Amino acid sequence: MNAFKYGPNYGGNLASIHNTFDNQLVSEKSTAALSQSTENMMVWLGGQDMFQLNQWGWIDNSNFTYQNWSPGNPLNATNYMCLALGVTNRYWYSIDCSTTLPYVCEFPPSA
């Protein structure tokens, strides 16, 4: 997935979410940034289940303490190991990492 490469190329990472406020903010900003209909739209976040099955983590190595999974998620399958945010319902989904989606990156504050 190219999204995992974009952020680090510019000094950032795919976004990690640590509370309800951040989840809402990313959802609202994503909705505003997308020019097409956002119904059923998802965006990549930096969550992965790559290292140990059913052990989710953020690619920036921050703590994975807040969760907002859609009912039935995360899926316990070896091909659904990346995390996407539903921008209208604000739920998280485990989906195939090869799925083409827009993505949200975060960068450290500039001096």
Can you walk me through this structure?
This protein is an alpha+beta fold and 111 residues long. The protein has a single domain (3-106), classed as Mannose-Binding Protein A, Chain A. 19% of the residues lie in helices and 20% in strands. It is built from 2 helices and 6 strands. A 4-stranded antiparallel β-sheet has the order 3-2-4-5, with no helix packed on it. The longest helix is centred in the N-terminal third of the chain and has 14 residues, at 20-33. The N and C termini lie far apart (30 Å). The mean pLDDT is 87. This is C-type lectin domain-containing protein. InterPro entries: C-type_lectin-like, C-type_lectin-like/link_sf, C-type_lectin_CS, CTDL_fold, Snaclec. Keywords: Disulfide bond. Residues 11-106 form the C-type lectin domain. It comes from Acrobeloides nanus.
**CATH superfamily (homologous) name:** Mannose-Binding Protein A, subunit A
Shape: globular
SSE sequence, one letter per element: HEHEEEEE
First and last CA, distance: 30 Å
Walk across the major sheet and give the strand order. 3-2-4-5
Helix content: 10-25%
Summed up, the domain count is: 1
The beta-strand count equals 6
How many separate helices?
A: 2
List keywords for this structure.
single chain; alpha+beta; Mannose-Binding Protein A, Chain A; 4-stranded antiparallel beta sheet
